[in-house]
Amino acid sequence: MMDLTAIKAQARKEGFARRKAAFDANGGGAGGYLSEILAGYRGVPLSGYMPIRTEINPLSAMAEAAAYGAVGVPVIQAAGQPLRFSKWQPDGAMKAGPFGAQIPEVDDFFEPEIVIVPLVAFDAQGGRLGYGGGFYDRTLELLRGRRATLAIGFAFAAQQADSLPLEPTDQPLDMIVTENGVISLT
């Protein structure tokens, strides 16, 4: 029997393959439903992310939301630490951050109440498989310990898996938005 690490590695490999195929077919952009969801939370501080590799692109929805309130992007502090979020503007100065994601040139940290979460794979129960560093799990646990925090998974529909190898420390998503629609889990 395979151990959980090997099972997760295989699930990630399959998720990356599905994501790449969807990215190639869609060109990466598909923010329409995300914009609709965020319109219902105008002014609520939120974090998106700067897409890397074959991640679905949230930037158009983030830019719309930035007209109404604080929008940030994650900044990795160190391995094993929660993320921090620095305020982002659509035309703001950026620099290279860890793992190739762009981060604001000047740190202006805040705590979001909505976190748009990139992922490798998800299931219909709100399970999420990320890159394996645990950054979002630690961060969501911290934020949810302070206040209600909405975790929105943003992915291509093809990234859905029947089930995922999850652990007790894995933080569930509250909602998943794809190019095809919204899966509400609450």
Automatic annotation (TrEMBL):
Gene3D superfamilies: NagB/RpiA/CoA transferase-like. It holds the Pfam family 5-FTHF_cyc-lig. The keyword Amino-acid biosynthesis does not apply. Keywords: ATP-binding, Ligase, Magnesium, Metal-binding, Nucleotide-binding. SUPFAM superfamilies: NagB/RpiA/CoA transferase-like (SSF100950). It catalyses: (6S)-5-formyl-5,6,7,8-tetrahydrofolate + ATP = (6R)-5,10-methenyltetrahydrofolate + ADP + phosphate. Its EC number is 6.3.3.2. This is 5-formyltetrahydrofolate cyclo-ligase. The lineage of its organism: Bacteria, Pseudomonadati, Pseudomonadota, Alphaproteobacteria, Rhodobacterales.
